Amino acid sequence: MKVVLQNLTKIFPGRGRGSHETVAVSDLNFEIPDGELIALLGPSGCGKSTTLNLISGLQKPTDGKIFFGDDDVTDLPPENRGVGLVFQNYALYPHLSVMDNIIFPLGNLRGKEKMTKSEMKQKAHEIAKLVQIDELMDRKPGELSGGQQQRVAIARALVKMPRVLLLDEPLSNLDARLRLQTREEIKRIQRETGITTVFVTHDQDEAMSISDRIIVMREGVTQQIGGPQEVYDDPANLFVANFLGTPPINVFSASVRGGRLYIGDNDVLGIKNIPDKEVWAAIRPEGFVLDENGPLECGFGSVEVMGRDISVVSENPNAVKPTVRSIISSENRVDRSQKTVRFSLKPKKVFIFDKNTEERLRFETE
Amino acid sequence: MESKSAKGWLYLLPAILFLGAFLVYPLIDVFVYSFEEGYNSASQTFFGTGLYNYSYILHDPYFLQAVRNTFILVIVTVPLSTLIALGISYGLSSIKALRELYQTVFFLPYVTNTLAVGLVFMILFQKTAYTDGLVNLVLGLFGITPVDFITGPYWAKMFVLCFYTVWVVLPFKILILTSALASVSEDYYNAARIDGTRPFRIFRKITLPMISPMLFYLIITGFIGAFKAYSDVVALFGTNLNAAEMNTIVGYVYDMLYGDSGGYPSYASAAAIVLFAIVLTITCINLLISKKHVYYGR
Amino acid sequence: MNRDIIRSERAAKTKKTVRSTLTYIILTFWVIIVLFPFYWMVLTSVKSYASYNSEHIPKFFTLSPTLENYSSAFTAVPLGRYFINTVIFTVLTTALMLIVTVPAAFAFSRLRFKGRDAVFTLFLSLMMIPYELVVITNYTTITNLDLRNTFTGLILPSVTSVFYIYLLKENFSQIPDELYYAAKVDGTRDLKYLFKVMIPICRPTIITITILKVIECWNSYVWPRLVTDDPNYYLVSNGIQEIRENGFGRENIPAMMAAVVVISAPLIVLFLVFRRKIMEGVARGGTKG
Question: CB distance from A79 to chain C under 8 Å?
């Protein structure tokens, strides 16, 4: 099922006297192709959860429209939309067994759709097999681990075969090891069912690793929509560049003069088609190459061994943050006694942004 | 180490003294009393031990009357007040505007003096030579002949008593149930809404089980409290409850201890212990039932 | 199909409006039942004796309010005396309760000594003892000590409440141990730590139990009735009962109501001021049982 959001806006009225209204979501436009797994990514308060609630119908938009396929569902209450929602804390009914939790939605069906108890159980078992919890059916949620609870919640959301599956921060309540495992699992389940899925996360790793497409949001406004690699390799603005990638991108205050990019006095890169001006230059950690004759000079800080790679921590007065972090292959030998370290840069890992609008300024290398 | 231990006990000393003198000692003593036949508090003598005191009260028509009244009161008011409280709390939790105001008003009876407000109820329900009283006037609108609820027929008096008891106990129950309802996470309701669950099913399958521990707590304390009814009865019908046929078990205990027919701590003790036994039995039954039906979260 | 959904949507909306209107009607009905006795008592208290008795059908308002009933409430019966007695009783009992409760809660929560946990368990089990069982012996004890019709006799058995000790102990226990060890390292003595750290941190709970105790004292009826038969020592509850049975002549209902208003007013004011604290405290008391 294709999901389309058109000019979607949600404004919360100010509470109490003197408080201002909050624009949680502002003029959102995007289209989720049928069967894709989409991540809504952004820091807390960026409107991603509100967007999810708007899609589910738990909240009504102030303006704009939502379509599932060709159906306008904007004014439909959640129960008529055919969505499955997995809550951040799972919201499993603690007094019901896993089985009863899963068949709970089926008990709401009326009229022609009404099912007998054994049909419900049959259905629940099918779903439970899919999410691999069929051995836990008699337990209570309190007796399950976080990962198992997560699966039960997904099973409950899937049992009615929703048109759209929504997951709110599905991994945030799990420990690091389970997170890796569960995100594979979500991807597998999504693939097998082919249900269009939207999940909300603030963790860029999570978004990058499993989604077909990422929507980066900030303060209610879409920043960029694209495949994981695309938003990483080709960020639309400084915010997106900053938000994605670990270790984070290194941002320098820089300037363009006569077709060259200067960081301080270092002429680091030749660039075309950007007029002379002050800019932000952002360099991915892997964009640095240790080079005795390289153009960028930094004060040497320390070396952190990361196994396959090493991370060179250095300082530069023009960097926004106190340290500049670069990742280089561990085959390089770093002289730890030196005062300074020099790098040359990989042009594809360098992004330039307008100093004021923070929008991307694209350039061509010589 | 020794001095530290001494210090601990020192801090506890006042509490231990008070509790020992006015709670532990009396508890033991009351059992002793109840088996001492013909104990006289003036001369502090008695002439035998045995079950005579129990036998006496169990054959005392006033005691049997008191037991009957108490049981009627319990059976009527506990379920009724719990149901009304549940309804009102549910209503409260579903509204937004004026909620705080309603909550405050509903709680008001909790802080009022039972005796004082009882007097107001008495006036409202009483039929005197001067006036039929407000309640009778209202009932008259529906074509019901005036009844004196305070000194009239038994059922009318019992009605006022039950009504007043419900009025008095509701604030606590509403408060507890409202906070129990508020503690049910919004997520459960949202999850149920997404699945298209109808309100009644949400209430029965989600709300009720989730608040069941509090509900049972209220039922258990409600039983205990109702069995000990006394001051609201006095408030409505005065201190001479035996004459009004409205005595309760606790009233009987106090009457035996003190008052017009008083001076028999042995009988009073026996009656108090019988009451305690009844309450204990009912509480145990309640607990057994609740084990089966109540969901206790972890 | 879409139109059906829209129709059902509209029906659902109507249903919702009906339901919420109904809710308000029911709640308001109960508000009236709760408030009406209060209204009636204030109304009656400002009607003159003559006009009250001439109303065969009671009026819901009065055009000539009078305060004479209030003056007769204080002159014809010793309402002032009852009032002062109750204040004395309430203040002393509550103060003593705090003096007993705070150290005990401190000992249970902070000091480590042999037998502490056993005593605490014993204390907890005392919570289950019904008042009716112990009141009998207390009555004989006070009588034998010749303390009837004294404040001592009134106050002493009313002081302790295991439940308040328990409530405060729970609150004290939530204060992290580190604070205590830090104070110990600085050489702070236990008593100073109690007063400078624990009590300020737990002030809300202490206020709560104080208010609850005040309410309990102000409304107490059974024990005062047992140990006082001299009107000079009556508390308000007994006073009301006395007024009802012997004061004013039985028919002076307006004066009676004036007395009822005077007696009820302090707690209602206290409640309106500390509304949140009181409701929170009672709710917590309820949860912890």
Answer: no
Interior CA angle at A253 toward A252 and A258, to 5°? Answer: 110
Using 50, 70 and 90 to split pLDDT, how confident is the model at A350?
Answer: very high
Q: Which ranges constitute the DSSP H helices of C68-202?
A: 68-75, 79-109, 116-126, 131-144, 151-155, 162-173, 177-185, 190-193, 199-201
Touching chains, B (3+ CB pairs < 8 A) = A, C
Percent of chain B with pLDDT over 70: 93
**pLDDT beyond 80 at A186:** yes
Cβ atoms B84, B166 nearer than 8 A: yes
ipTM of the complex: 0.87
Indicate the domain borders of chain C.
2-68, 78-288
Name every chain B residue with its beta carbon within 8 A of the beta carbon of A97. none
Could you read off the pLDDT of A104-116 as tens digits, one per residue?
999 888 878 888 8
> Taking CB atoms and an 8 Å cutoff, what residues of chain A touch B191?
85, 87, 91, 156
* 8 Å CB contact of B195 and A160: yes
Tell me whether A64 touches chain B (CB under 8 Å): no
Q: Is the pLDDT of residue B1 over 50?
A: no
Say whether A285 sits in a helix, a strand or coil.
helix
DSSP β-bridge partners for residue A67: A4, A72
User: What CATH architecture is A3-243?
Assistant: 3-Layer(aba) Sandwich (3.40)
Is the pLDDT confidence value at A124 over 60? Answer: yes
Helix (H) or strand (E) holding B31: helix B25-35
- Could you state, in order of their start, the residue ranges of all structural domains in chain A? 3-243, 250-365
pLDDT band at B148 (very low <50, low <70, confident <90, very high): confident
Does domain B54-293 correspond to CATH entry 1.10.3720.10? Answer: yes
Do B197 and A57 count as a contact with CB atoms less than 8 A apart? no
Residue C57 clears pLDDT 80, i.e. is over it: no
Contact C221/B95, CB-based, under 8 Å?
no
CB contact (8 A) between residue B120 and residue C99 = no
pLDDT(C286) > 60: no
Chain C contact for A21 (CB, 8 A cutoff): no
In terms of Cα–Cα distance, which of A144, A134, A135, A99 is closest to A117? A99
A18 — pLDDT class (breaks 50, 70, 90): low
Nearest by CB to C57, from B113, B137, B234: name it.
B137
Collapse the DSSP code of A5 into the 3-class scheme (helix H, G, I; strand E, B; otherwise coil) and give the result. Answer: strand
Confidence class for position B158, pLDDT limits 50, 70, 90: very high
Each residue of A273-297: pLDDT tens digit? 889 999 999 999 999 998 888 899 9
Of residues A240, A241, A189, A224, the one with CA closest to residue A210: A189
pLDDT averaged over chain C? 85
Task: Mention every residue, 6+ apart, whose C-beta is less than 8 A from residue B45.
Answer: B39
Query: Nearest-CA distance from C66 to chain B in Å?
Result: 19
Which residue of chain C has the CA closest to B11? C103
Q: Which of A117-131, C115-129, C233-247 has the highest mean pLDDT?
A: A117-131
**A192: Cβ–Cβ under 8 A, 6 or more apart, which residues?**
A130
Among B27, B102, B268, beta carbon nearest to C31: B102
Give CA–CA dist B191/A90, Å, rounded: 9
Q: Give yes or no for a contact between C162 and B19, defined as CB atoms under 8 angstroms apart.
A: yes
B42 to chain C, any CB pair closer than 8 A? The answer is no
- Tokens found for residue A176: 């690091």
Distance from the Cα of A142 to chain B's closest Cα (Å) equals 7
pLDDT at position C288: 37
Tell me the mean pLDDT in the region B157-172: 94
CATH code given to domain C78-288: 1.10.3720.10
Q: What does the buried/exposed string (b/e) look like for A228-267 if buried means 16 or more CB atoms within 10 Å of the residue's CB?
A: beebbebbbbbbbbbbbbebbbbbbbbbbeeebbbbbebe
